[in-house]
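Lab notes, practical 5.
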Amino acid sequence: MTIGVPGLILILIILLIIFGPKKLPELGQSLGQSLKEFKQSTRELTQDDQNDSDRRIDRQ
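Output from the prediction step:
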């Protein structure tokens, strides 16, 4: 299931109607910060897992 360009335009119009043009940049900024923190946490977890597996291999 893909949204496509018309779907994205419709979603943006609905968001503008619901939240208004003044609140929309704040919502975008908070969403961007949340995604950045999520990506950073995911990277840290995968690095920890990688380090753990490297330690197990070194012990053998």
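Observations recorded by the TA: Residues 43 and 57 are 21 Å apart (CA to CA). The chain has a mean pLDDT of 85.
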